[in-house]
Amino acid sequence: MSLKLSLHTVPEVPLEAESITPDRLADLSEADIAALPVHHGNQQSSIGDFFSVSGNGNSEIQIEGDLTRVKLIGVGMTYGRIIIEGNVGLHVGAAMSGGEIIVKGDAGDWVGPEMSGGRIVVKGNAGHLVGSVYRGGRIGMRGGEIIIHGNAGNEVGNGMRSGLIAIGGDCGDFTGVNMLAGTIIVVGKLGWRCGAGMKRGAIVSMHDAELLPTFSYACTYQPAFLRLYLLHLNELGLPISDAHMNGQYRRFSGDAVELNRGEALLLKS
Question: Can you tell me whether residue 261 is helix, strand or coil?
C-alpha cells in the first residue's frame, strides 16, 4: 500500500513542499504527515492545510491534483518512488540522489537540477533548465537519468557533469551549454547554439542542426555506445525508430573555445 496525498486546496501562491519525500514521510502516521510544515508564500502552513493524507508506505507516495503551484517535491530524496498524477511546479527532484519520480503531466522549470542519482520521468513537457546547475554554481546534473517524453525549454543540461538526459520531443536553445560531460539525447530538433562552451560529453539529435562555428566536422559513423542508450530509451517508451538505431551519425567536435573534446552527433538524413 502506498501513501496518497490528494490536493484539496489549490495554493494561491507557490507552495514550497520540500518535506514531501519518502525519506521524510517514512514511518509517520497520517496525522504526523499532515502536521509537517510547508511554506505558502511567506507564511508557514502544514501539509494538511492543502492535502488530504491517506494510507501509509515507506517507499511510495502518490500525489493527486493540480500541482502547478507546488514546488520542490522530492528535493534531496535518496530512495523510493513519487508518482504525480498530473502537472507539477518548479524544482521537482532537485539534488535527489536515488529513487524515482514519475510526473504524468507537465513539469515546470528546473527539473532535477544538480541531481546525482535516481530517475525522473516526465510524461508531458518540461520547462527550462532541465538537469542544470543553479545560477552561481559550477556543476549541474552529476548522475542519474531524466527522461522527458514531450518538449523541453532552454538550457537543458547546463553545466551537466554526468548522467543521461533524454528528450522525446524538441529542445529549446543552448542545449548542453557549459556541459562538462554526460549524454543528452534529443529525438526531436535542437534549438540554437547547442553545446556552447561545452568541454566534454555528447549531444545527440535525430535531426540536422545549425551548430556554432566553433564546432568542426570529424567523421560519419555508427556509434556503438549510442545503440545501447537507444535500446534503453525505447524500453522507457520514447519514440525510437529503426532509422535512429541503425543510422549513420555525423560527428562534430567542439566547443573549440574550451577543450574541444565534446561531440555533437547528428543523424544523417
Answer: coil
Is the Cβ–Cβ distance between 131 and 151 less than 8 Å? no
Question: Which uninterrupted H or E stretch holds 246?
Answer: helix 242-246
How many angstroms separate the CA atoms of 94 and 153, rounded?
17
For residues 157 and 183, what is the distance between their CA atoms, to the nearest angstrom?
9
Give every strand in the sheet of 37-40, ordered side by side: 43-46, 37-40, 15-16, 70-71
Summarize the confidence of residues 147-170 as an average pLDDT: 98
The residue written with cell numbers 559513423 in the block is 221
Residue type, 42: N
Cα 96 from chain centre? 11
Contact (CB, 8 A) for 126 and 105: no
Q: What are phi and psi of 156, to 5 degrees?
A: -65, 130
Cα–Cα distance measured from residue 48 to residue 44, given in angstroms and rounded to the nearest whole number: 12
* 3-state DSSP assignment of residue 44: strand
Per-residue pLDDT tens over the stretch 111-146: 999 999 999 999 999 999 999 999 999 999 999 999
DSSP H or E run through 231? helix 224-235
Residue 87: the pLDDT is 98
| The model scores a pTM over 0.85 | yes
The CA distance from 183 to 145, in Å, is: 10
- For cell 508518482, name the residue: 83
Question: Helix or strand or coil: residue 30?
Answer: helix
